[in-house]
Amino acid sequence: MDAQAADGGASRIAELPDRSLLLLDDDAALRSRLGRALESRGFDVRMVSSVAEANAEVARETPAFAVLDMRLEDGTGLAVVESIRDRRPDARVVMLTGYGAIATAVAAVKAGAIDYLSKPADADDVVKALLASGEAPPEPPENPMSADRVRWEHIQRVYELCGNNVSETARRLNMHRRTLQRILAKRAPR
Description:
Helix content is 49%, strand content 15%. By secondary structure, it is an alpha/beta fold. The protein folds into two domains: 3-131, Rossmann fold (3-Layer(aba) Sandwich); 147-185, Arc Repressor Mutant, subunit A (Orthogonal Bundle), CATH 1.10.10. The strands form two sheets. The protein has a five-stranded parallel sheet with strand order 2-1-3-6-7, with helices on both faces. The chain is globular. Keywords: DNA-binding, Phosphoprotein. This is ActR/PrrA/RegA family redox response regulator transcription factor.
Protein backbone atom coordinates (compact mmCIF):
# COMPACT_ATOMS: atom_id res chain seq x y z
CA MET A 1 0.00 0.00 0.00
CA ASP A 2 1.48 3.38 -0.94
CA ALA A 3 1.56 6.41 1.36
CA GLN A 4 -1.25 8.12 -0.54
CA ALA A 5 -3.60 5.18 -0.07
CA ALA A 6 -2.59 4.97 3.59
CA ASP A 7 -3.79 8.53 4.29
CA GLY A 8 -7.19 7.91 2.66
CA GLY A 9 -6.39 10.31 -0.21
CA ALA A 10 -5.94 13.28 2.18
CA SER A 11 -2.72 14.40 0.49
CA ARG A 12 -4.43 14.56 -2.91
CA ILE A 13 -7.45 16.31 -1.39
CA ALA A 14 -5.22 18.93 0.28
CA GLU A 15 -3.79 19.83 -3.15
CA LEU A 16 -7.22 20.49 -4.68
CA PRO A 17 -8.08 24.14 -5.39
CA ASP A 18 -11.75 23.55 -4.48
CA ARG A 19 -12.58 20.93 -1.83
CA SER A 20 -16.29 21.74 -1.50
CA LEU A 21 -18.47 18.64 -1.23
CA LEU A 22 -22.23 18.27 -0.96
CA LEU A 23 -23.43 15.19 0.95
CA LEU A 24 -27.11 14.33 0.46
CA ASP A 25 -28.64 11.48 2.43
CA ASP A 26 -31.90 11.17 4.35
CA ASP A 27 -30.39 8.69 6.82
CA ALA A 28 -29.12 11.02 9.57
CA ALA A 29 -26.75 8.48 11.14
CA LEU A 30 -25.11 7.56 7.83
CA ARG A 31 -24.96 11.22 6.73
CA SER A 32 -23.27 12.24 9.98
CA ARG A 33 -20.74 9.37 9.97
CA LEU A 34 -19.82 9.76 6.32
CA GLY A 35 -19.73 13.56 6.58
CA ARG A 36 -17.29 13.45 9.51
CA ALA A 37 -15.12 10.89 7.72
CA LEU A 38 -14.96 13.02 4.55
CA GLU A 39 -14.19 16.15 6.59
CA SER A 40 -11.35 14.34 8.35
CA ARG A 41 -9.88 13.55 4.93
CA GLY A 42 -9.89 17.23 3.95
CA PHE A 43 -13.16 17.96 2.16
CA ASP A 44 -15.29 21.01 3.04
CA VAL A 45 -18.54 19.13 3.57
CA ARG A 46 -22.07 20.57 3.51
CA MET A 47 -24.65 18.00 4.64
CA VAL A 48 -28.31 18.06 3.57
CA SER A 49 -31.19 15.61 3.96
CA SER A 50 -33.56 16.36 1.06
CA VAL A 51 -33.62 17.13 -2.64
CA ALA A 52 -35.02 20.60 -1.91
CA GLU A 53 -32.18 21.41 0.52
CA ALA A 54 -29.61 20.04 -1.94
CA ASN A 55 -30.95 22.13 -4.83
CA ALA A 56 -30.91 25.23 -2.60
CA GLU A 57 -27.25 24.55 -1.69
CA VAL A 58 -26.35 23.97 -5.36
CA ALA A 59 -28.02 27.26 -6.32
CA ARG A 60 -26.18 29.08 -3.52
CA GLU A 61 -22.75 27.58 -4.25
CA THR A 62 -22.23 24.67 -6.65
CA PRO A 63 -19.78 22.17 -5.11
CA ALA A 64 -16.79 20.60 -6.85
CA PHE A 65 -17.79 17.19 -5.47
CA ALA A 66 -21.05 15.56 -4.45
CA VAL A 67 -22.09 12.31 -2.79
CA LEU A 68 -25.81 11.82 -3.30
CA ASP A 69 -28.33 9.25 -2.12
CA MET A 70 -30.48 7.87 -4.92
CA ARG A 71 -33.87 7.55 -3.22
CA LEU A 72 -35.14 10.24 -0.88
CA GLU A 73 -38.50 11.11 0.60
CA ASP A 74 -38.96 14.17 -1.62
CA GLY A 75 -37.53 12.79 -4.86
CA THR A 76 -34.43 11.30 -6.38
CA GLY A 77 -30.77 12.25 -6.28
CA LEU A 78 -30.74 12.18 -10.09
CA ALA A 79 -32.46 15.59 -10.12
CA VAL A 80 -29.62 16.99 -8.02
CA VAL A 81 -27.00 15.47 -10.35
CA GLU A 82 -28.63 17.29 -13.27
CA SER A 83 -28.77 20.54 -11.29
CA ILE A 84 -25.06 20.27 -10.45
CA ARG A 85 -24.13 19.35 -14.05
CA ASP A 86 -26.04 22.37 -15.41
CA ARG A 87 -24.09 24.76 -13.17
CA ARG A 88 -20.71 23.02 -13.00
CA PRO A 89 -19.97 20.40 -15.70
CA ASP A 90 -16.59 19.50 -14.14
CA ALA A 91 -18.12 18.52 -10.78
CA ARG A 92 -17.50 14.92 -9.71
CA VAL A 93 -20.63 13.18 -8.42
CA VAL A 94 -20.92 9.75 -6.80
CA MET A 95 -24.33 8.17 -6.23
CA LEU A 96 -25.10 6.03 -3.17
CA THR A 97 -28.03 3.69 -2.83
CA GLY A 98 -29.29 0.89 -0.67
CA TYR A 99 -31.18 -0.49 -3.66
CA GLY A 100 -28.49 -1.73 -6.04
CA ALA A 101 -29.78 -2.38 -9.54
CA ILE A 102 -28.20 -2.16 -12.97
CA ALA A 103 -30.95 0.10 -14.33
CA THR A 104 -30.42 2.57 -11.48
CA ALA A 105 -26.65 2.58 -12.03
CA VAL A 106 -27.13 3.26 -15.74
CA ALA A 107 -29.54 6.12 -14.98
CA ALA A 108 -27.06 7.65 -12.52
CA VAL A 109 -24.18 7.52 -14.99
CA LYS A 110 -26.34 8.89 -17.82
CA ALA A 111 -27.35 11.80 -15.57
CA GLY A 112 -23.67 12.61 -15.04
CA ALA A 113 -22.48 10.66 -12.00
CA ILE A 114 -18.93 9.32 -12.29
CA ASP A 115 -19.54 6.29 -10.09
CA TYR A 116 -22.22 4.37 -8.26
CA LEU A 117 -21.71 2.73 -4.85
CA SER A 118 -24.11 0.65 -2.80
CA LYS A 119 -24.75 1.39 0.87
CA PRO A 120 -23.23 1.14 3.32
CA ALA A 121 -20.26 2.67 1.51
CA ASP A 122 -16.91 3.02 3.20
CA ALA A 123 -15.49 6.59 3.23
CA ASP A 124 -12.26 5.38 1.61
CA ASP A 125 -14.24 3.86 -1.27
CA VAL A 126 -16.15 7.14 -1.70
CA VAL A 127 -12.89 9.13 -1.78
CA LYS A 128 -11.35 6.71 -4.30
CA ALA A 129 -14.40 7.12 -6.53
CA LEU A 130 -14.37 10.92 -6.23
CA LEU A 131 -10.66 11.21 -7.00
CA ALA A 132 -10.43 8.51 -9.70
CA SER A 133 -9.17 9.68 -13.04
CA GLY A 134 -11.51 9.30 -15.99
CA GLU A 135 -9.31 6.76 -17.81
CA ALA A 136 -9.62 3.90 -15.35
CA PRO A 137 -12.23 2.91 -12.77
CA PRO A 138 -11.16 3.07 -9.12
CA GLU A 139 -9.38 0.05 -7.73
CA PRO A 140 -11.50 -2.44 -5.82
CA PRO A 141 -11.36 -1.98 -2.04
CA GLU A 142 -8.39 -3.52 -0.23
CA ASN A 143 -10.54 -4.80 2.63
CA PRO A 144 -14.15 -4.93 1.48
CA MET A 145 -16.86 -5.50 4.06
CA SER A 146 -17.73 -9.13 4.54
CA ALA A 147 -21.21 -10.33 3.64
CA ASP A 148 -21.87 -10.80 7.37
CA ARG A 149 -20.88 -7.18 8.04
CA VAL A 150 -23.12 -5.86 5.23
CA ARG A 151 -26.02 -7.91 6.63
CA TRP A 152 -25.32 -6.61 10.17
CA GLU A 153 -25.18 -2.98 8.93
CA HIS A 154 -28.51 -3.44 7.12
CA ILE A 155 -30.14 -4.90 10.23
CA GLN A 156 -28.79 -2.03 12.34
CA ARG A 157 -30.15 0.55 9.88
CA VAL A 158 -33.63 -1.01 9.81
CA TYR A 159 -33.56 -1.29 13.62
CA GLU A 160 -32.71 2.43 13.87
CA LEU A 161 -35.43 3.37 11.36
CA CYS A 162 -37.96 1.40 13.41
CA GLY A 163 -37.16 3.45 16.50
CA ASN A 164 -35.18 0.57 18.10
CA ASN A 165 -38.36 -1.50 18.23
CA VAL A 166 -37.29 -5.17 18.02
CA SER A 167 -40.73 -6.53 17.13
CA GLU A 168 -41.28 -4.04 14.30
CA THR A 169 -37.75 -4.58 12.97
CA ALA A 170 -38.19 -8.36 13.02
CA ARG A 171 -41.51 -8.03 11.16
CA ARG A 172 -39.97 -5.79 8.47
CA LEU A 173 -36.94 -8.05 8.07
CA ASN A 174 -39.15 -11.13 8.01
CA MET A 175 -37.21 -12.85 10.78
CA HIS A 176 -38.06 -14.26 14.17
CA ARG A 177 -37.88 -11.73 17.02
CA ARG A 178 -35.57 -13.92 19.14
CA THR A 179 -33.20 -14.41 16.21
CA LEU A 180 -33.04 -10.65 15.79
CA GLN A 181 -32.40 -10.16 19.51
CA ARG A 182 -29.45 -12.58 19.34
CA ILE A 183 -27.99 -10.72 16.35
CA LEU A 184 -28.40 -7.34 18.07
CA ALA A 185 -26.73 -8.61 21.24
CA LYS A 186 -23.55 -9.61 19.36
CA ARG A 187 -20.72 -7.35 18.28
CA ALA A 188 -20.44 -6.27 14.67
CA PRO A 189 -18.66 -8.81 12.47
CA ARG A 190 -15.47 -7.71 10.70
